Amino acid sequence: MYVTNRPDIIFTKGKGSYLWDSNCNKYLDMIAGWAVCCLGHSPEVMVEALTSQAKLLINPSPSFYNEPAIEFADLLTKISCMDKVFFINSGAEANEGAIKLARKYGQKYMNGAFEIITAWNSFHGRTLATMAASGKKIWENLYQPRPQGFTKVQYNDIESLKQAISKDTCAVMLELVQGEGGVIVADKTYIKQVRQLCDENNILLIIDEVQTGLGRLGHMFAYEDYGIEPDIITLAKGIGGGFPLSALLAKDEVCCFEAGDQGGTYSMAPLGAAVGKAVIEEIINSDLCNNAKRIGEYFTEQLYKLMERHKVMKEVRGSGLLLAIGLHEEIANQIKDECMNNFLIINAPNTKTLRFMPALNISTAEVDETISILNNVLNKVSKIS
């Protein structure tokens, strides 16, 4: 079914930071399956976890406990400030669960408060509710009528948030870096003010860590770098290393679902939990948070040097291994396509932004290869434009 434009390429194999197509061409992958392949393509720890668990138990149904889900939930609560975990399949479902949990909390403890404040330019998923929560203006008239109860405010603007809070507000839901919005980083002072404002008004703070969580910014969780503790966080993408998996985590006092309020056929599936646990253990054991920080700093330095040579580059944005180039001209898609022709895979979230979200174990040599190809492409594109 057609849902997006795809190049006429069929990928057949992946290893580390590289992909091979059906014609045996080798590509350097700087989007890592849309930030999900945090250990690169087909890492041994994932292959081992998948095959070992598949021989034991794949899915007994979410009606029963299983060892991998218990062990993985225990690991996630130990490394975070959260107390309880609900496993599901995708980032959108994790965020949908966060919305439901916040509204349930508002219903039970906040006189029926149901509104959730989100930010313009945000992205929280593609279900009807998460699209309504997202601040993408091009979605405003899509799939009407959509779920109500979402108020949009300007990102990094505490006054805008203050004015939006009402007696019906139950939660604020934010990304610490707006990844799909073009890698726009939240100001640390702003986020601390948001936390304080939520405390003063007794409303919940939901942090969407679907793209920023689990090492991507150089910390296991992005909220650690901001010096705050959310009430609810959502995880996906890197949590399964490419396997479809996500999680909704919350503080104990927020967990108010009753039997039948929430569920999912593949929730708690031991196959996914075993893979997720193996991925997170590898991030910890191989110190990939620090690698993301170190390589991210090196990558950023090289991008700034590249900017000195190419006037089309306006700025470098981001943190860790979630980085972007802001452009003066609307030629991001042209650059992305030309990079693909030169066997480098990057992303253009909008017409003036190029985005990089590689595996957390990427090397400086692979960064250098990226910069070299990008330099050649920018030389070619600048001559054309």
Topology record:
Elements: E1 11-15, E2 18-21, E3 26-29, H1 32-35, H2 44-56, H3 67-79, E4 84-88, H4 91-109, E5 115-119, H5 128-133, E6 150-153, H6 158-164, E7 169-175, E8 177-178, E9 184-185, H7 188-200, E10 204-208, H8 222-225, E11 232-235, E12 246-250, H9 270-285, H10 288-309, E13 313-319, E14 322-327, H11 332-341, E15 344-345, E16 347-350, E17 353-356, H12 364-384
Parallel strand pairs: 3-15, 5-6, 5-7, 7-10, 10-11
Antiparallel strand pairs: 1-2, 2-3, 4-12, 8-9, 11-12, 13-14, 14-17, 16-17
Strand content: 15-25%
Number of strands: 17
Rg from Cα: 21 Å
Describe the sheet with the most strands: 7 strands, mixed
Notes on the protein architecture:
38% of the residues lie in helices and 19% in strands. With 385 residues, it is α/β, with parallel strands linked by helices. The strands form 4 sheets. The protein has a 7-stranded mixed beta sheet with strand order 4-12-11-10-7-5-6, with helices on both faces. A 4-stranded mixed beta sheet has the order 1-2-3-15. Strand 10 (204-208), helix 8 and strand 11 form a beta-alpha-beta unit. The longest helix is centred in the C-terminal third of the chain and has 22 residues, at 288-309. 49% of the residues are buried. The mean pLDDT is 97.
